[in-house]
Design goal:
flat, mainly alpha
Length: about 210
């Protein structure tokens, strides 16, 4: 490229490829990128800054001046002010990114963190979490008992694991349904812009004033 020309990427996420295309642009020679917090933007949004930064640093070893620990802080702040809430499964900044439940995942993590945390929690100054649920395995039960200095045998481990799975299945889903309906209502009332009828009403009032 000419020394006086700097290419910049600006990618939309219609096909879920905004981050990938942005990074591809950098690898191809772009020296500037446009991103948004949480990927907010028209239609399906734009490239998410946290995803782009994490990919450039950890996969392509490209430096930057962003402090990773503030990415999740910024993400939460933007959620709060925009009312556009992210999925718990959101890459890099999502609620579940560093939380592990599946038995085989937890077992692997307890032996070697890189087994399932390709993006380390420490990068964002966070800690990995292990979740007790219906997908849990005996490795986590043993780990918890060891951490609490409680002696055990495999019968106790199996009984506790069965109790965890039963309690998970029996938990009420009422809060899930209520939250879902509240969120649907919120989207309609607060994320759908100004009602067309409001504009038409103002237009008719303006016309009446002109004809007086």
């Amino acid at each position: 490229f000419h020394d006086d020309i700097r290419l910049c990427t600006h990618c939309h996420n219609d096909f879920g490829m905004a981050t990938a295309n942005t990074v591809a642009g950098v690898i191809a020679g772009a020296r500037a990128v446009t991103c948004t917090v949480n990927g907010i933007g028209e239609r399906a949004g734009n490239a998410d800054i946290a995803e782009v930064v994490a990919t450039l640093e950890h996969i392509y070893h490209i430096g930057h001046n962003i402090k990773p620990k503030y990415l999740s802080v910024l993400s939460a702040l933007v959620e709060r002010y925009t009312g556009i809430f992210m999925s718990p499964l959101k890459a890099v900044t999502g609620f579940n990114v560093y939380r592990h439940e599946s038995g085989i995942h937890v077992d692997g993590m307890l032996k070697e963190r890189k087994s399932y945390e390709f993006l380390p929690a420490s990068w964002m100054e966070k800690n990995s979490e292990y979740i007790l649920g219906k997908h849990s395995g005996s490795a986590l039960i043993r780990h918890i008992l060891n951490e609490a200095s409680i002696s055990f045998d495999e019968d106790l481990v199996n009984n506790l694991l069965k109790a965890v799975k039963s309690l998970t299945v029996e938990r009420s889903k009422v809060a899930h349904y209520e939250t879902f309906h509240q969120l649907q209502k919120f989207k309609q009332e607060h994320l759908s812009g100004i009602d067309v009828n409001t504009v038409l009403h103002k237009a008719r009032l303006a016309k009446q004033e002109v004809t007086k």
